Amino acid sequence: MPLLVLLTNLQRSTVGLFVSTPLIMDYSKGSSVFTVPKTAPIRVGFVGLNATKGWAIKTHYPAILQLSSQFQITALYSPEIETSIATIQRLKLGNATAFPTLKSFASSATVDMIVVTIQVSSHYEVLMSLLKYSQSNPNFKYLFVEWALACSLDQAESIYKAAAERGLQTIISLQGRKSPYILRAKELISQGYIGDINSIEIAGNGGWYGYERPAKSPKYIYEMGNGVDLVSTTFGHTIDILQYMTSSYFSRIHAMVFNNIPEQELIDEYGNRLGQRVPKTVPDHLLFQGTLLNGNVPVSCSFKGGKPTKKFTKNLVIDIHGTKGDLKLEGDAGFAEISNLVLYYSGMSENDFPSANGQQPRVGSGYDAGKEIMEVYHLRSYNAVIGNIHRLYQSISDFHYNTKKISALPSQFVMQGFDFEGFPTFMDALILHRLIESVYRSNMMGSTLNVSNISHCSL
Amino acid sequence: MPLLVLLTNLQRSTVGLFVSTPLIMDYSKGSSVFTVPKTAPIRVGFVGLNATKGWAIKTHYPAILQLSSQFQITALYSPEIETSIATIQRLKLGNATAFPTLKSFASSATVDMIVVTIQVSSHYEVLMSLLKYSQSNPNFKYLFVEWALACSLDQAESIYKAAAERGLQTIISLQGRKSPYILRAKELISQGYIGDINSIEIAGNGGWYGYERPAKSPKYIYEMGNGVDLVSTTFGHTIDILQYMTSSYFSRIHAMVFNNIPEQELIDEYGNRLGQRVPKTVPDHLLFQGTLLNGNVPVSCSFKGGKPTKKFTKNLVIDIHGTKGDLKLEGDAGFAEISNLVLYYSGMSENDFPSANGQQPRVGSGYDAGKEIMEVYHLRSYNAVIGNIHRLYQSISDFHYNTKKISALPSQFVMQGFDFEGFPTFMDALILHRLIESVYRSNMMGSTLNVSNISHCSL
């Protein structure tokens, strides 16, 4: 292993290996605004926050707890009001009301933002009802939904349309885009530090979908059509991150989807087999290859279900090769959006390197010309599960309060696309849905598909 | 990095990590027969051996020099007889004759085996002439040709047919099959040490075909149709090795072939750019994915041209994942057949492990049941360029003299297929040619192709 230098320990060596000028790039840092804004906090209503279980209590709740001057939970809805009341008591949500119906919740004037963190299979019904019932809500402005935004492209399109007609600012939790590693990689790429990308390889290991299933694990994640599987979740998040980092959608794609493990063995919490086999209909492997629109770059992906291996390779590896250098992202789990990663960068310093953010390079360009540069970027104690969601809320806050004082800040983000600023919207989700739909179509037809139009905003 | 144990330093630890029972598997070792056989050596005629340049002097010559009791060079042919005479003098080939014409060479009664090591683009013409002129040669029995056996499937088929009609024992230098690493991996797989294979990823980096071209480098390797390129050579050798290790051909394949670098920059021997651009028509990238016939195993491959990266990944990585363990092969160059590799194995010992070669396991099966096993296999001073060719000659010798005293040794190997014994033949070459042809066809048609019939022996 060659010389690796921690970013947090900026060092320079005279033997030809030293750290580049990362200090002048800062997108990978969190927002610096933690002070109380002059105006009132954004009032948040949750569908799916339960103090005792589920995704929201582990991620959204701690994420916005750290942003208490910008966000305030004011409303909860769950099909059983007792759950909402218990959650309010347990979390001491002094400003929150438990609503008995989705209708009363959606029309409440105490809500600026609604966050939906429920099973994907319920997205369509709940969101369409929400959008209907909130028609005359004067304050409701932000609608934040967990990926995958419903179970199919059709459903996602309907939801997108209904939200667009209402003029809502939508947010989708493709939170990998807020990962500091992804943003650092995107910075290095966009500022030319690896030159032109010419090859990308990805191998991911989706923990479940293997030979064994924990008996406690919910059945729906093993059943096709519920919007949570190796293709929609593991591949979906990862390929969205890849497109975001490289600032390019795909032009052509080909995919093969496998269900080689149609039956799983139930295991208890200690890993003991219980002697019972249960059917699995979701895929356990995806082979995907294609070309990026920018530069016709070949991309090779293999997403595998089953037990993590962790012996000779990490469960997530993204290799990005360029004409001037390489980037490698590694993670212990094949879920880039919720994993703490390690980013490796290697490149060659050149005279004609772009100066970041228009500033002069920290090191004189004549001095380090042609020298090898290396960097390892890793935040040892970063909690990616909460952290990436936290940064997503920060970006909503940055937009709402215009904390960065951007003079031409748009009144609405239709889509984030590949911008550093902003956050992914339902349009970004829709584009990803189209790619996923094309994965299944390519698999079924056995054909390479031209997907260069899927990023067009029109429906 | 977990505990790694060198095979040559067999050690056992009581903490649950120890070496399995590799001593009872020995296919990865070379033949032990180095003594003078009772009968006469195999008399070898070379087309393409030149004492001062080329492939044969670097590989075939040193390889058979170590087998001087089994092989004797008795004939040389080259278009200019002076070259042959000079080679005989320089190498002190006391028993060799320089022939003035291919006809006199091919019909010489002093030749048992002809080895053809010339440019692939000349294979067809030379081999067809050889096969014609040697019709009445009483002793000519072995025909050994360098991969790729001509430039196209059509040519390869014609050569195969002509050789089969003559009843010759053919040998093709798909010498990766003789690499001790490949044989060790094949042993581990075939004896169940990684269970059922469920996923394979390959990334290779073919050194040339990149942005720069050494000015001294011969032009023909950058021109399409000469049988030496990223697909025929880099991919060809590697995928042959993969099929051989896993004992499976492919059922379905899909490929995308790229020429993203249609012009290269000429460089001198010091790497300085000479300011001259030259056209390149051979591919610089191949994306290949498919499924193995055995077990519908997903295989993902990315073969890249250009400069070796060597920073965060090796230039050749083959990851084979199974239900009980993993294998990883790594090499510094993307040419598995001529590289010294490192083989990593990790698995789980179980009671029901097959005992190798019918012998009892070295360690009591009760003792190590369920324990984790790891192994690193690397022969530090192994010269793979010569070594794999050397082992190929050994296997010809083993066959010719039946040194292993196999009672039912066939009088001819039509194909090696996936046997440990023997050597790859023109039929093995033909099957590989069919796969390569399907790669280009899949790329052109944009379709997944069913290739499950290409291993059938019929033409």
UniProtKB/TrEMBL annotation, chains A, B:
The Gal80p-like C-terminal domain, residue ranges: 180-331
Domain of life: Eukaryota
InterPro entries: Gal80p-like_C, Gfo/Idh/MocA-like_OxRdtase_N, Gfo/Idh/MocA_oxidoreduct, NAD(P)-bd_dom_sf
Originating organism: Saccharomyces cerevisiae x Saccharomyces kudriavzevii (strain VIN7) (Yeast)
GO terms for MF: nucleotide binding
Domain Gfo/Idh/MocA-like oxidoreductase N-terminal intervals: 42-169
Protein's name in the database: Gal80p
